Amino acid sequence: MNVFVINSGSSSIKYQFFKMPSEQPICSGLVERIGLEDSIITHKVYTGGHEQVISRTLDLPDHEAGMQEVGRLLTEPEIGVIQNPDEIEVVGHRVVHGGESFSKTTVITLEVKEEIKKLFPLAPLHNPGGYLGIEVAEKIFRKATQIAVFDTAFHQTLPEKAFRYAIPNSYYTDYGIRVYGFHGTSHKFVAEQASEYLAKPSAKIITIHLGNGCSMAAVDGGTCVDTSMGMGPLDGLVMGTRSGNIDASIVFHLVSHLGYDVEQVSNLLNKRSGMLGLTGYSDMRDIRKSMDKGDKNARLAYDLYAYRIKKYIGSYAAALGGLDAIVFTAGVGENDPLTRKLVCQDMDFFGISLDEDKNQKREPGIREINTANGRTKVLVIPTNEELEIANQCLGLLREM
Ligand SMILES: Nc1ncnc2c1ncn2[C@@H]1O[C@H](COP(=O)(O)OP(=O)(O)O)[C@@H](O)[C@H]1O
Ligand SMILES: CC(=O)OP(=O)(O)O
Ligand SMILES: [Mg+2]
């Protein structure tokens, strides 16, 4: 079965084309730095054990422009992998917020699209891109079954004490105000890989997903018991452009003393804060360059970013009542040794001790980067949300 997966992140679109159920990748790609200068599209075609890489730098102002470009690459003479878009049988979409209505993988209908749209205000950086991905894919892949896989799904197992906020009960029962949690597809994928690597199905694992959006999950024997994002993907860790957790009184102050309206508050906390607000850059590669040139704000931002992660490791080790492994994943987690070093510094108390040589090495696949006597494994595991999504789609079609 030909399954094409689209993962619209806040700053990137990732896509992969798989033959299922063999999980054989046909091509994949990444459109990066959407909305920044010099967007990069990297397209890989896999044929007979060979990997052909096509890289183009162009200006992509938004996700729609990015998706159009991906559509062109799939059928482009010489490098195209299909002649006709009708050859795609299933398109799996990453949809970030499923809200109250969707906790499971779902075939996309008009009603589903309406629900995804209703959730725009709760995931303003994501659901619009996901929605657009669906609209464009429906036009390009007319014969395919379009399926949504929600970031929120893996977190459905959170116990009530972890998903409820301490506000009057009716706000939960009447309005669905609760923790939903995000990046679930990624947390699930790397947690499963980690427990397989450890050969311990009951493993207590903290997964640390550091992309443009960042979140952590506490996973106990495969079940997610806590996570750092909340009702929307704004809470928790410091992110590329998002503040992570802040005191809600700051919002009152912005509104009553500085005259902000809702739109302006949302814009400030979602798009102008986080690493961007602290340094002027949202991309860790730019921040690292700036820090190496002596920029003190960049250094502070790194410290703040890592300190927040450390605090969550502490609280999740307590929530889990033990710790077998921490797992770094996604853009920053997989590629930035300095972040991993700062997070793991002075964490001997938790049995975390980093081997700096192993930390600096770049190798594909799962890497163990703790010292030999480190009680807690420190793992770098490349996430593969696309493969997880393809498998979820297959699972749903088999049930139908
Ligand atoms: N080599 C690298 N070194 C440091 N950071 C990197 C590197 N490559 C990517 N990143 C970081 O990863 C982020 C993108 O991560 P990704 O998981 O693809 O994000 P998203 O899915 O949210 O768009 C970039 O913003 C950048 O900060
Ligand atoms: C939910 C979320 O923050 O996603 P991303 O990291 O892809 O922006
Ligand atoms: Mg992502």
From TrEMBL:
Binding site for substrate: R94
Active site: D151
Cofactors: Mg(2+); Mn(2+)
Enzyme class: transferase
EC number: 2.7.2.1
Location of this chain's protein in the cell: Cytoplasm
InterPro entries, sorted: Ac/propionate_kinase, Aliphatic_acid_kin_short-chain, Aliphatic_acid_kinase_CS, ATPase_NBD
Site note Transition state stabilizer, residues: H183, R242
Reactions accelerated catalytically: acetate + ATP = acetyl phosphate + ADP
Binding site for Mg(2+): N7, E385
Alphabetized Pfam families for the sequence: Acetate_kinase (PF00871)
Residues where ATP binds: K14, H209, L210, G211, N212, G213, D283, M284, R285, G331, V332, G333, E334, N335
Keywords of the record: ATP-binding, Cytoplasm, Kinase, Magnesium, Metal-binding, Nucleotide-binding, Transferase
GO molecular function: kinase activity
Major localization class: cytoplasm
Pathway as given in its UniProt record: Metabolic intermediate biosynthesis; acetyl-CoA biosynthesis; acetyl-CoA from acetate: step 1/2
Coiled-coil regions listed: none
Function as written in the Swiss-Prot or TrEMBL entry: Catalyzes the formation of acetyl phosphate from acetate and ATP. Can also catalyze the reverse reaction.
Family in the record: Belongs to the acetokinase family.
Subunit structure: Homodimer.
Protein name: Acetate kinase
Phylogenetic lineage: Bacteria, Pseudomonadati, Bacteroidota, Sphingobacteriia, Sphingobacteriales
